[in-house]
Amino acid sequence: MPEMPEVQGLVDFLAERTVEHAITKATLANIxxxxxxxxxxxxxxxxxxxxxxxxxxFIDVQTEATDAPETTDAPDDTDAPDGTPATTTPLHxxxxxxxxxxxxxxxxxxxxxxxxxxxxxALRVGFDDGxxxxxxxAGTKKSLAVYVVRRPDEVPGxxxxxxxxxxxxxxxDVLAGLLxxxxxxxxxxxxxxxxxxxxxxxxxxxILHAAKMSPYALAAGLDDAEIDRLYAALRSTLTDxxxxxxxxxxxxxxxxxxxxxxxxxxxxxxxxxxxxxxxSVFFADNSLEYCPTCQTGGxxxxxxxxxxxxx
Length: 311
Hints:
- This protein has two domains: 4-159, N-terminal domain of MutM-like DNA repair proteins (Alpha-Beta Barrel); 172-310, Helicase, Ruva Protein, domain 3 (Orthogonal Bundle), CATH 1.10.8.50.
- By secondary structure, the protein is an alpha+beta fold.
- The radius of gyration is 22 Å and the shape is elongated.
- It has nine helices and ten strands.
- Helix content is 28%, strand content 21%.
- Helix 1 packs parallel to helix 6 (224-245) and helix 5 (201-210) packs across helix 6 (224-245).
- It has a four-stranded antiparallel beta sheet with strand order 1-6-7-5, with no helix packed on it. Strands 2-3-4-8 form a four-stranded antiparallel beta sheet.
- The longest helix has 22 residues, at 224-245.
């Protein structure tokens, strides 16, 4: 699943290539992916991209369209008949790539007709210079979500996001306040988007490894030194990952993410810090990775699938 660093990489890539370009095409191939109906998807056509930003794991393509009264007497396309400036209507194309979604960029958008139900493409967007992108989703479980809204906080997932962990206002004391009183395993806290925005399964593994902390440690039980360590690991891990993603085209981001991982996805390999074997704990639909020597005092964590069978 794309997490904050990869999403930020996509944001930077799109901002460089789409700002000040008009949208000429917005074609939906998977109707279930579109979660809004007002404004309609077609309302994006003719609007101009004015910015691309990130909210947690959501990408927000901001556009504007000029609402000038229809008249032949107006001085130009941007002024009303009395000479006052015309108003602009902002629209936001927001999307979340979910577990198996991705963005495929084209310098020249293919002219082929998209056949709904016959392609992994969920949405195709084209620009006035001939470029564009597809939002694609692999597998049979479709969770990719697309929204067209007037304000980003109209998207429910954005409205309930916690603070951004790389924001200037995300201090050590803010993190301590978020952890206080939570009798929840720290791995789950880091992944909860309503507590901290943008971190998922992969980077929570990496942060906890850097902090030398068990994924099963209770958030409320962390002492001041452990919170200090967790905060430093969180900021440095995400800052480094964002820097690695910056400037890379979408096709390279996934491989760059894998190469940068110390423990996540590296079960059976040697820990780069101590040389111990990286271990996994498996759940119903994912797993976590950790180093016993670095994080759990040498203790092996129980496989949740096996524990459930033994009950």
